[in-house]
């Protein structure tokens, strides 16, 4: 069981969380969330990958595909992060965002296989922002995708991986800014 200080994330991981928070905040505004809910979404987004600090760096930064056992370990990060934040006294809604940001609208996500409206709205917002930033950022195992490609992925996963309303809010924000490439 993890206790005490949160494990350290790399500068790239912290920058990712910051970018996700900014984008999640924009999506929340587009959805018409109130000031309190915007603050919760932004804070949850800034913390969403906290649990990755407890995952061995060799797995987090592996330059090739993860093995099935490594994927099992990596998929523990939402629960690890939620536990750390709960123990630290974080607001329960922020903990829920961290715990559920890899759930899918269609119920095929993790850690609990929640679907649709059972997934907290903040987690649904962070899921879209997280995916977009992950796709448009270079990783040890792949180059960054162009934003237009990432937007097409979000559109294609609308109603499967992502809440359609959240995906639409995101797409209405980013599509006008993208080259049609």
UniProtKB/TrEMBL annotation:
Coiled coil stretches, renumbered: none
SMART domains: HDc
Molecular function as annotated in GO: hydrolase activity
Pfam families membership: HD_5
Recorded superkingdom: Bacteria
Record-annotated HD-GYP domain positions: 1-181
Listed NCBIfam families: HDIG (TIGR00277)
Protein name: Metal dependent phosphohydrolase
